[in-house]
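Standup notes, structure subgroup. Blocker cleared on the 2-deoxy-2-amino glucitol-6-phosphate input:
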Amino acid sequence: MCGIVGYVGPRDCSDVLVSALTKLEYRGYDSAGIAVFENGKIEVAKSKGRLTDLVAKMEKEGKPSGHAGIGHTRWATHGEPSDVNSHPHSGRRVTIVHNGIIENYKQIKKFLIDNDRTEFLSDTDTEIVAQLLDYYYDGNPVRCIRKVLHEIRGSFALGIVFADRPETVYAVRCESPLIVGQGMGEAFIASDVPAIIKYTKDYYLLEYGEIAVLKNGSASFCNLHGRMIEKELKTADFDEDSAEKGGFEHFMIKEIHEQPTAVKTTITPRIEDGMPNLSECGITPETLKSFKNIFIVACGTAMHAGMVGKYVIEKLARVSVTVDIASEFRYRDPLLNEDDLVIIISQSGETADSKAVLNLAKEKGAKTLAVVNVKGSSIARESDMVIYTHAGPEIAVASTKAYMVQLSVMYLLAFEMAYAKGRIDEKECRRLTAELVKTPEIIERAISLEYNCQYISTKLITADSLLYIGRGLDYALSMEGSLKLKEVSYIHSESYAAGELKHGTISLITEGMPVIAVATQTSLLEKTVSNIKEVKARGAMTIVICDEAAEFDNDAADYTIRIPKISEVLMPMIATVPMQLLAYYTSVNKGNDVDKPRNLAKSVTVE
Ligand code: AGP
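Run returned:
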């Protein structure tokens, strides 16, 4: 939540900050602002609304002109989105941008008031930090930052400029992600690498409590104790194109189209001689055999990938798997011990609740495995084992390709675990792995149903509410279909186990209400079709997603999306595609901002 950037170098600072913030808008987009040294003085421009509103304001009123500064795009936590609550925030001599939350800001505010500091303009926790920095500032910025770090609690990253230190940007990380980019004679800070990839692929990853000083085009670092440290320069493994729309209208549709490649890149290095092999991730057959229980914990879409993982691991490896929402799991005093494996799935690797579960699992002595997309993210670094998904940067707030690669990893894990435990023989393991290898091509074919999905989505735009139903794996999958649709189309949607409808929910069915049934599991097809007929008999408009060979009464479905067939257990990877396309086109048809749905942010770094 929130994106921060900073720049020191020869380019026009305002332009660099705005360009970098454009790439971070997925982290929050209710207001934006920048602060730039202009002729040695800090000039601030900020505005409620999108970055485009800030740009329009600067075009009208003038943009700060200089070569060093900081910027911010906001997802409001404290105080409504407004000009005054927008970052940067200032004390008398200090101006800051902030990502994250300050938990003890009320106590600090009281401390400041008790010490005659009463000039608060905004409702934000950030302004309190700016004022506290100012209160302690004695001419030594690093000492002042360290002092403040000892007093504030929470998860945060800050970009800071001091009025009497022109052309210099300070940055500090405590939990919330922050990188320092190093170009030729210029240096950057950013919440995420894609923000600066246009300028440089080289970056340093700030660790907890580390402070960076950007001056004269380069960066130096010290730790919480003020000791200078050397950091390893990393190079991003993607380029500018991956963070651009590349001819597509939106990132979401681009990312849907990237799925075949993303799956291929994720599974290929983990398959050796036709068998799954996760040893490069520190996972051996012995490790996989050793767990009594498996817990998969995550949020949102990542949790839905875990739901599919549960069905597949239990079915093939015969190990009990519990899936839970991270924000629930962390507070329910879970029964965890040394014999258990906790799998945390996360695209960003920074989700606050998922991180908390990781810490809890470690405290309880359970082994932890992260399935993460963003390299070097907190969850990846702090887990015992990590399987990186190689989806590349996912920019659209609605997750598509990250979910798809999370599924592919769930399959690799299930196959290797089932084989290690002797639940499937080598022949079956090879067969399943070979089927997984085919998925990129079949996903591609499913994407070619785009125009069919686009047409069917026109039938959804007037709906106020709809249901997604399925049984077994199809039910697990329909949870994601439903979330995707509601988050980008704003149509209320629920996913329901098809067999459970008659126990209450069927009373919601009225004339014309859309019901999307996922029916890819042959053994359950007949039963799901009965449920489809039951809702149709009560007026529902039914859309059935099934495989191309599925046979059922023509009159059950008003619309049918027939997807290419693969081994039944792998059908979720194919059926996901039309669900994503339905969500995308419904959103487009309604004129919504597909990539930045209202009220959301991609990286949820607060509880
Ligand atoms: C779904 O489209 C959302 N982006 C959201 O549910 C997301 O999956 C969730 O917030 C978890 O994020 P993570 O994968 O980065 O941990």
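Discussed briefly. The chain is about 35% helix and 25% strand.
Next: hand off to the docking folks.
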